[in-house]
# Entry
Amino acid sequence: EALAAAAIEPRKSLLGRYQLLGLITARLAEQKEAVQRQLEAASPLNRYPDAEKATVEKWEAELNAAVEAEYRRKRTELLLLFQWWLRDVWLGSTAVGSSLLAFPELEGATRQVSARLSAREASDNLWVLERLQRQLATNVQEGLALEVGLLKLRL
# Structure
């Protein structure tokens, strides 16, 4: 909902696009911190403070890997939700009825954005998010990939 609310404002300027990027990166940072806290609480590092150094190092490596894996899953989920909403925008730009919307509760925001876009622009947005998801699945710098991908969106 927050992303849709932010996207309602026309993002023609560079500053507006960076505001949307800031919203997404802030949400991702919150999610990473929450994952970190949750997994640290469940980690054997807290239960066995007197463990051998090798064991502690192994647990720390496993914890870091688990945090990164869960964070990537949550990042993918957030971007996928945004992509589904952009799909709704595309449907709105093609004048398809609202019965097919994935997020009918966001119909007002969807209509506002889809009214500004052609069907081609809305379709391009879906391709941009798809490419971004594929890039993030590789060994690419997350911040740069998000920046480039979100700056390409037409909202």
